[in-house]
Write a structure and sequence with these properties.
The protein is an alpha/beta fold and 410 residues long. It folds into 2 domains: 202 residues, FAD/NAD(P)-binding domain (3-Layer(bba) Sandwich), CATH 3.50.50; 153 residues, D-Amino Acid Oxidase, Chain A, domain 2 (2-Layer Sandwich), CATH 3.30.9. It is 32% helix and 27% strand. It is built from 11 helices and 18 strands. Strands 3-5-4-12-13-14-11-15-18 form a 9-stranded mixed beta sheet. A 6-stranded mixed beta sheet has the order 6-2-1-10-17-16. Strands 7-8-9 form a 3-stranded antiparallel beta sheet. Helix 1 packs parallel to helix 3, helix 7 runs antiparallel to helix 8 and helix 9 runs antiparallel to helix 10. The longest helix is centred in the last third of the chain and has 32 residues. The protein is globular and about 65 Å long. About 1% of the residues have low confidence. The structure holds flavin-adenine dinucleotide. Flavin-adenine dinucleotide (FAD) binds next to helix 1, strand 2, strand 3, strand 11 and helix 9.
Amino acid sequence: MTGPGNTGRRAVIIGGSMAGLFAGNILHRMGWQVDLYERVGDSLSARGAGIAAHPQSLPLLAAAGIRDDRSIGVPVIGRAAYGLDGEAIERFSYPQQLTSWSRVYSLLKQAFPAARYHAGRELVEVTQSAHEVTARFADGAAVEGDLLIGADGIRSTVRRIFAPDIVPRYSGYVAWRGLVDEADIPEGHRQELFQWFGFCFPRNGELVGYPIPGADEAVAVGTRRYNFLWYRRASEHQELRDLLTDERGRLHEGSIPPPLIRRTHLDRLRDDARALLPPQFADVVHQTSQLLFQPIYDVRSEQLVFGRVALIGDAAFVARPHVGIGVLKAGEDAQALAQAVSANEGVMAGLGRYQDERLPLGQSAVSFAQRLGAFLENGDEHPACTPEAGVTHGDIIRKTARADYAASLD
Ligand SMILES: Cc1cc2nc3c(=O)[nH]c(=O)nc-3n(C[C@H](O)[C@H](O)[C@H](O)COP(=O)(O)OP(=O)(O)OC[C@H]3O[C@@H](n4cnc5c(N)ncnc54)[C@H](O)[C@@H]3O)c2cc1C
């Protein structure tokens, strides 16, 4: 490895979240001069409270300068699906560490040189010549680089400039989410919930729940939290708009701050929890002090490289959370890009290689996640509820355990 800044190559990264920090850390350690620009002025808030660590996660973190950290998450022994009476109807062994978005983000942020992380800087324009690329910011400043990386998320400005036709497509459902302190989970349910990555399939929906580290990232028994996602259908033009409208009648485009979600929606969710969910999950929903929801979208790019500009992470592709690979894919995109542009063949040839490698994988991940969520989108009863379909809960939860999105289309 060469020392930071001594290859003479300059990377400008837009977006200081997962993908941007992975790319920044890896390129910095490969000797690039890296500057990272993030629109948000403060520390970022969690984009997904809980995330699964995959076998590939630790080598990726190591490449980003984070040493093997065995306390990264909370271990579970496998996956389990529960019926309405609360009894397990399927189980299989799948040991895994579950961690929190904020834990991974803070490790990546600490590893990146603070002087090169420019918070409160919003990209508005990109221009390029044969030799360099220029980024312009809302404050009027401009910077140049040999490479510009668009790591600016689902509503990427970089993607809008170069591929305006690629826009997020609403899936037809939202994920209601919440976190509960371990101490607030009724004792009778605690051991089961904290040992298994759990699923249940209420009518026209799916709930996924698992333990994650506590608020201060503690992983000791008694200090952890329980994280859940409850996917529920919401038609785009009626129900979603209604969910996004606050008590004063104001419609919030894209997402609504949790404290502004109308009481009537929260009450309905809690009532439905009692009617539709196994008792342990209904309790979790009722113990959650701050319920929130996120509409679920797909983003499927047809091109990742535009001259000296490359897209990575959610700016490139958004696969629905059923596959649980958003952060892993952000890290793998970043590593593949850093390796390709650092090879002897030069930046431009490396960018071509990056696109050839990552475009089919990203498209495959989006398609796989769409298939896992198709029953939510179409509003059908889950195939598992119709025995003649020959699909069991076990089949479904086994598929969600696959992090190998390269081979996920079989
Ligand atoms: C409900 C839900 C559950 C999820 N669960 C999981 C899970 O279990 N496992 C998992 O791996 N992933 C999960 N994800 C996905 C995961 O959160 C994302 O894939 C990941 O955060 C993507 O990181 P990113 O850096 O590409 O984008 P983001 O985290 O969105 O970051 C983009 C950054 O770019 C900045 N930015 C945007 N525009 C500009 C601009 N013009 N100038 C400067 N900066 C800009 C933004 O402020 C932001 O900080 C989940 C997502 C959702 C919605």
